[in-house]
Design brief:
One of its GO terms (biological process) is leading strand elongation. The chain is α+β, with helices and mostly antiparallel strands. Helix content is 34%, strand content 11%.
Length: 272
Amino acid sequence: MNLMSSSLAHHRLASAANKLASRHHRDTHLQSLCADVSRTLSETGALLVKDPRCTVEDNDHFIDMMEKYFSSPHEFKIRQERPHLHYQVGVTPEKVEVPRCLVDEEMQKKVKEMPREHQPHTPVGADLKWRYFWRIGPRPSLTRFQELNAEPVIPKGFPEWKEAMDSSQVALVALLLRSEGFEHYRCDRNLSMGMNLNNMAKMLKCAGNDDIITIKADDGSDTVTFMFESPTQDKIYDFEMNLLGFSFSSPYEFLTIPLILCLHPFVKNLFF
């Protein structure tokens, strides 16, 4: 009886040890993959992901449908054009979009400062290609940006359009990068906040490539704090930004939505 108990205990310990070793190996592998993803995005700005959920058949069906559509007569394709929505849905014909490098003087200056062998090719006119803008997922019922959340445009004669468009791209929306793969990352808790992305972008441009970024906010607060700390801790930038408040008209008299007016987008403090 004692021998059987000892053997069973040994088996359980061995099984537990194997599970821990397997989990450690898996976590180490995932951390390595996340580190590779982070490095690739930092060095090249692009990442190619092969998702097994995107089958070859779905991709072929999507390509065949696109070839059929863009080989259609010009008079047919132009019916899916929505210029009054700034081409945020539907088709965009050729010679409509102008490359940014043709109008951005700062970008042109940077290109000229590069060695000739590293200078990118600069277009000389409007874009000659057509494109089709298709948004994935349901649109919000309340939005300030109607043109960004307009109903999708489906060409007549393509009953499979929506299914083909969604099935070929939906896997990209589900991409998840685990926090364990990134250095100095910590999230104490999840918190939903309304932020002005333009103001936030201005602040993030002030951070160095190696700075540690800390975001702080309290429940019920109308501000959020961004702190940028240099690796040597000789400089600390402290930004305080007002959160957004929205007001929508409602058909129900008993429904009250508060409105917060932000006079100053953010305040900056610099500590040495």
